[in-house]
Structure formats: C-alpha cells, structure tokens
Amino acid sequence: MAASETRSKRVVLGVTAGISAYKAIEVCRRLVDAGVHVAPVLTPDALRFVGVATFSALASEPAQSTLFDASQAIPHTSLGQSADLVVVAPATADFLARYAAGMANDLLSATLLATRAPVLVCPAMHTEMWEHPSVQETLATLVRRGVAVVPPEEGALAAGDRGIGRLADPASIVAVVLGMLGSNGDLAGRRVAVSAGGTREPLDPVRHLSNRSSGKQGHALAAVALRRGAEVALVTTVGTPVPAHPRLSVVRVDTAAEMEAAMAIESEKADVIVMAAAVADFRPVHVAGRKLTKDDGIPEIVLEQTPDILRGLVAHRRPGQVIVGFAAETDEPVARARRKRESKGVDLMVVNDVGAPGVGFDHDTNAVTIIKESAEREVPLTSKEAVAEAVLDEVVELLDRNDGADRARGEDS
Ligand code: PMT
Fold it and tell me: Range of 57's domain?
C-alpha cells in the first residue's frame, strides 16, 4: 500500500492501563509509517505504564490524556468527530466495561461516545479476567453494537504467568486497522450495493405481508465489503442501527417497490450488486386506507406479483458489473439454484437450504453453495461473515477477470 493512500485517514489510538501499553508505542509507530494520521489518547492510569512524551514524539499530533486541557474546550468531540477509526490497544477489562456502559469519565471513553467512526478494541488482561463471564458478556455487547475486536493471544503474561490474554502482536493489530481503513483491501476503489432483509407489503395501515429475513446475511456482506475497502450502499428493510462507517451509506426501505427504486439508483454507480434481500414475490393489490376490523368480515386479499428487482438490475447491467443473487430453497436447492442463475442471468447464485438446521433466515450462521458459470463452491455451516467473505472472494475474482478482459480489448483496438 502506498503511504499516500492513507495520508488523510485519522486514527484515534486509545491506550488504557495495561502492562502491554508499551506495545501500543509500536502500533503507533507502524501506523504513522503507513501514512496514517495518529492522535494518541491515554487514560490517566495508562500514564502509570507509558508516557505522553513517547507518543507525542512518534504520533502525528501531541498525545492527550485529559478532558480538561486548558488549550481545548472540548477535546473529545473534535477527536471523535474527526476520526476515521478509533482503536483501543490495549483495552483493559475495566475500560471495556466502562465503554459498554456508556460512561464518559475520561477523555478516551468520552471520545468513544462522541464518535460515529468504527471502533476496534484489542483486549489484554490476565487469563482469569479474560475468561470471566462479565468480560465475555461485555465484549458480546460491544460486538453486537458493531465494535470490531482483535482478540488477545496466548503467551507470557505479567508476573511470570502464561495463558490467553496477551495483547495481539502490533503487526497484526496494524494489519486489521489498515484493513478497516480500507486502504489495502481487495475491494478498495470498488462500489458495492447490497440489499438486505425481508420486504414488507402493506395490507392496511397496521398489517403487512413479510418473511423471516433478519437482514443478518446482507448486513454481514456490507460489513465485510467495507472491511475489504469497498464503498458500500446498503439498501435494507432492517431498522436496527448499522454501525456507521465513512464509506457506508444506508437506505432504509420497506416494500419491494421501494427496494427496486433504491437499488436502481445504487446500481448506476455500483461495480458489484448483491441481492441478499428476501423480496416478497406477491403483494396485496389493494391496500386498505384504514385498519381492517372483524366488523368488516373476513377480508379477501387479492395478490399481485412484485417487480423482479434482480431481473431488472441484470437488464440494465453496466459493463463489467458483477451481479450476485441469493436463493432461499428447501427442495433440491442446488439444482433449482442452477436454473435460477441461468434464468435470472446473474454471475453468481448463492443458494442456502433454508430447511437445514442453522441455515438461512434469522440464524447467525449459514451454509451455502455458490453457483458459478462453470463450477460450484460449497461453504459448510459457518458464520454469516465467513459466508460473506467467500462470496466476496468469488466477486473479486470476477472483477479481476472483467478488468483483464477490458485491458485485452484496449490492447487489441
Ligand atoms: O436475512 P437473514 O435472516 O440473514 O437470511 C438470509 C437469507 C436467507 C434471506 C438470504 O441468505 C437469502 O437467501 N436471500 C434471498 C432470499 C430470496 O428471496 O430468495 P429467492 O429465491 O426468492 O430469490 C432469488 C433472488 O431474486 C434473490 O437474490 C432475491 O433478492 C431476488 N428477488 C426475488 C424476488 C423479487 N421480486 N425480486 C428479486 O430481486
């Protein structure tokens, strides 16, 4: 990665009071070497282990450790608002608990509340503390909110102990940071439009037809595409907050018609389209203007087909654009998905057997077969993030192939 690609990226490097705080100095130095602007923030107790002077000498701006620095009225808001990423390394058990609880009693925790940037925490502590249920529950809460974690490693700990809890190697932390900044991802410079969730087709002002899609698979695709450097447009029916990211735009929709309109706009700029949404195939012809009640008798609901969004996107495909469909099947999934890939004209059809345990709707896990033009790739039961990684690996291969074909055409002409 060229240093110039990351020069404008700002990272707040939070350092908390652990024995491994000395390793944060190496993280700071490596990030600066990679062209990242590093603003160090040390908690007051971190100063018992490392000094402001060291970080100030190595970082891009003077290190800070207090909310009440006379030179700046409200340092936490300017730090939080200007950050592209906040990294906390090492993150102690106490700090993680305070962060999860939303406390803001030092500059670092206040900065974390004041930021919309993605956050990466790198815990480090003794094994007993790391394995304590309260630490694990705290981390689970943070992960649910979209915080990324570089877990501790096994090895020598303070006071001659050994076990899991040692801060991850600075080189690994820096690799994750650069990945999150997107400066070295294989999707850097690409635009990816992802749809997620089940559409809701209204019957009356209080009822709708929908399905069991939670949006988890689509959101995982968006998160992984971001991590790999893409600009991502997420068109989603899911209301729960999506962690903010400087390269993410989120469009909330409800119905198939709204999703069709949003995806049509996003597809005009996209290099990659992934339709992971479960779009309702049918919607009521008439939507009652008022709540239907028992006094009206049993309603007869006449349905009509919704637009086939994927087919429309394929019909308007930009040159070199890669289009991916998902298929939720219960009978002969692979055979049906092969036919669906052909008939819809997509590059990849990712099929999940939604009748199988742990697969498809609402689970945190999934198992898929990725149907390509001339081969198939099985992804056995794993996390939805791992499925997203596998799908995007195939996408990157197709993008590279299309780029190669473009270059060859250019050389011929
Ligand atoms: O959201 P989760 O709970 O994580 O669950 C994930 C998932 C099961 C929803 C996901 O993995 C998945 O399979 N999504 C596609 C579900 C689906 O609608 O499959 P389908 O076989 O009915 O449709 C095939 C493709 O056509 C899909 O890409 C779909 O988005 C698209 N489609 C379908 C109907 C329609 N009117 N317009 C479309 O674009």
Answer: 3-169
Domain of residue 232, CATH code: 3.40.50.10300
- Indicate whether 190 and 128 sit together in one domain: no
- Pick the last residue of a domain from 130, 145, 169: 169
Output the 3-class SS for the chain.
CCHHHHCCCEEEEEECCCCCHHHHHHHHHHHHHCCCEEEEEECHHHHHCCCHHHHHHHCCCCCECCCCCCCCCCHHHHHHHHCCEEEEEEECHHHHHHHHCCCCCCHHHHHHHCCCCCEEEEECCCHHHHHCHHHHHHHHHHHHCCCEECCCEEEECHHHCEEEEECCCHHHHHHHHHHHHCCCCCCCCCEEEEEECECCEEEECCEEECCCCCCHHHHHHHHHHHHCCCEEEEEECCCCCCCCCCCEEEEECCCHHHHHHHHHHHHCCCCEEEECCECCCEEECCCCCCCCCHHHCCCCCCEEECCCHHHHHHHCCCCCCEEEEEEEECCCHHHHHHHHHHHHCCCEEEEEECCCCCCCCCCCEEEEEEECCCCEEEEEEEEHHHHHHHHHHHHHHHHHHHHHHHHHHHHHC
Ligand 1 probe mutation, 310, 343, 369, most atoms within 8 A of CB: 310
Question: What pLDDT band is residue 8 in, cutting at 50, 70 and 90?
Answer: low
> What is the pLDDT, as a whole number, of residue 3?
36
pLDDT reported for residue 244: 66
The pTM is what? 0.71
Q: Classify residue 177: in a domain, yes or no.
A: no
Question: Across all residues in the chain, what is the average pLDDT?
Answer: 93
Number of compact structural domains in the chain: 2
Task: Give pLDDT tens digits for 158-167.
Answer: 888 889 999 9
What mean pLDDT comes out for the span 90-115? 97
Which residue, 126, 143, 169, sits at the end of a domain?
169
Is 211 one of the annotated active-site residues of the chain? yes
Indicate whether 324 pLDDT > 80: yes
**Dist. CA 118 → ligand 1 center (Å):** 28
Residue 244 shares a structural domain with residue 387: yes
- Ligand 1 atom with the smallest distance to the CA of 362 is 3
- Has residue 14 got a pLDDT over 70? yes
Atom of ligand 1 nearest to the CA of 217: 4
Segment 354-368, tens digit of pLDDT: 999 999 999 999 999
